[in-house]
Fold:
Amino acid sequence: KDANPKDGVFIDVDGWVGDNSIIAAAMGMDTYAFEPTRYVTNMLHLDILANDCAVSEHLTVVNALVGGYNSLDENLDLIYHEMDFDDDFDDDYQ
Structure:
C-alpha cells in the first residue's frame, strides 16, 4: 500500500523559516514546527501568510527550544561539553 502524506505527522525541529514545514503542510500532513528564535518564528508566520491558506490548516508553529533537558542552561551546557573546545575556551569566552 502506498503511503498517504495526509495520514502522517511531520515534526520540524528548528523549523527556521518553514522551508520544510510548509511543504509538508501543503501535502496535507499535520505539521509542527519548533523554532526557538522569535525573529525567525515571526518570519515563518509571514511565510505562512504568503502561501496558500490551506497550509495554515495543517501547520502549527511553536516558538520553543527542543532539547534533552528542561532549561536553556542545561541544553547549552550539553552542547558546550559535546564540542571539542580547547582548554583556553573558558578563559577567553567567560
In short: The radius of gyration is 17 Å. The mean pLDDT is 78.
